[in-house]
Design a protein that fits this description.
With 350 residues, the protein is α/β, with parallel strands linked by helices. The chain contains 13 helices and twelve strands. It has a single domain, classed as Rossmann fold, CATH 3.40.50.720. The strands form three sheets. Strands 3-2-1-4-5-6-10 form a seven-stranded parallel β-sheet, with helices on both faces. The chain has a three-stranded mixed β-sheet with strand order 7-9-11. Strand 1, helix 1 and strand 2 form a beta-alpha-beta unit. Helix 4 runs parallel beside helix 5 and helix 6 crosses helix 8. It is globular, with a radius of gyration of 20 Å. The chain binds nicotinamide-adenine-dinucleotide (NAD) and thymidine-5'-diphosphate. The site of thymidine-5'-diphosphate has 12 residues, from helix 6 and strand 8.
Length: 350
């Protein structure tokens, strides 16, 4: 039986990936390696936790002995690496864990692969990364796989470092690696510190919708299941040593995203649109706030035939319906730690 370690499988993208892959690939054992930080939610894995081809392993990737022990126990053929500290604002407030997990954690995983995998074996380390490593675009242009790295935040700088280390292990040791760098994901099971779920939950509770700066920063929005399909395609059919950019073809200004959320929420719940839009509040900008991200996905679409299935409109409606229907999941994440973060981040901005 093929064995794949998915790191960060209790987080947003990892849990969606496992919910997609575990039933799809019954002859592969998926080992979810995650140390359950604030961003993890085991409730996201309820649908697959009893599956015979799924195992959960609580391991901290920034602990090299623990990583080596998990590798010894399972002897994985492949690693799909998603575990990371992932929130830009937290990286500005407290960068320490970002360096430990995103840089050193990636390094320890690569070392474990190097120690366990034979040269010319049928193995793969797939590194999931972000378009934020490329820094900010101006009004025009798109990120390609050739765009120079120019990260702005401690988060994106740490992810950039991890990308370079992954590529170095390929060039120096011949480790079989692939990378994918994607734009902003949204969809079910996303922790409500990120723009879209934060706005949905705040709007439902009648709380302010805090927009950084003027709300004119642009992000390209990728529905999480489109991203999961792209990752699996690259793992199976992408060329070893290559990077693939993945984007949703959905560039939006933040203010337009928030207005769309208000509109769909109003349609889905019957709450008056004017009351929801009245919650929009402009707050102090994020330091080093990148103006615009946008992806040229022609490499993955040309080589592998991938295209996003969702438009922003269809994906946003699915996302909002999911949050309206999954109150139990929402209650699990609203811990004391969550409330502390909200008070700290938004208390300082107003
Ligand atoms: P997330 O914050 O929702 O989840 C991260 C997961 O990693 C959590 O389950 C957490 O417990 C785990 N983790 C953190 N530190 C760990 C450690 N030291 N050891 C083991 N596990 C640890 O993140 P996400 O949004 O699902 O992102 C997943 C990956 O995709 C990240 O590498 C991120 O950089 C990348 N990415 C995310 C986006 C996005 O929009 N969310 C966009 C581009 C790239
Ligand atoms: P975020 O979801 O944190 O993703 P990233 O910083 O990785 O792009 O933020 C998306 C955009 O929304 C970004 O331009 C910052 C902005 N934003 C707000 O305006 N208000 C908020 O409360 C948050 C969390 C983000």
């Amino acid at each position: 039986m093929k064995k794949i370690i998915v790191t960060g499988g209790a987080g947003f993208i990892g849990s969606n990936l496992l919910n997609y892959l575990v039933p799809l690939q019954p002859d592969t054992l998926f080992i979810n390696l995650d140390n359950l930080t604030y961003a993890a939610n085991l409730h996201s894995l309820k649908g697959i936790e009893g599956a015979p081809n799924y195992k959960f392993e609580k391991t901290d990737i920034s602990n090299p002995e623990a990583v080596a022990e998990t590798f010894r126990r399972y002897g994985p053929d492949c690693v799909i690496h998603l575990a990371a500290e992932s929130h830009v604002d937290r990286s500005i407030a407290d960068p320490d864990a970002f360096m430990r997990t995103n840089i050193m954690g990636t390094f320890y995983l690569l070392e474990a692969c190097r120690a366990h995998w034979k040269k010319d074996g049928d193995n793969l380390f797939h590194h999931v990364s972000t378009d934020e490593v490329y820094g900010s675009l101006g009004e025009n242009g798109l990120f390609t796989e050739e765009t120079r790295y120019d990260p702005s935040s401690p988060y994106s700088a740490a992810k950039a470092a991890s990308d370079h280390i992954v590529k170095a292990y390929n060039r120096t040791y011949g480790l079989p690696i692939k990378l994918s760098n994607c734009s902003n994901n949204y969809g079910p099971r996303q922790f409500p510190e990120k723009l879209i779920p934060l706005m949905i939950l705040n709007a439902l509770e009648g709380k302010p919708l805090p927009i950084y700066g003027k709300g004119t920063n642009v992000r390209d929005w990728l529905y999480v299941l489109d991203h999961c399909e792209a990752i699996w395609l690259v793992v199976q059919k992408g060329r070893v040593g290559e990077t693939y950019n993945i984007g949703g073809n959905s560039e939006k200004k933040n203010i337009d995203v928030v207005r769309s959320i208000c509109k769909v929420l109003s349609e889905e719940t019957g709450k008056p649109l004017a009351a929801l839009e009245g919650l929009i509040t402009y707050v102090a900008d994020r330091p080093g706030h990148d103006l615009r991200y946008a992806i040229d996905a022609s490499k993955i679409s040309g080589e592998l035939g991938w295209r996003p299935k969702e438009t922003f409109e269809s994906g946003l409606r699915k996302t909002i319906r999911w949050y309206l229907e999954n109150n139990e999941w929402i209650e699990k994440v609203k811990t004391g730690e969550y409330r502390k973060w909200i008070a700290k981040n938004y208390g300082d901005r107003s």
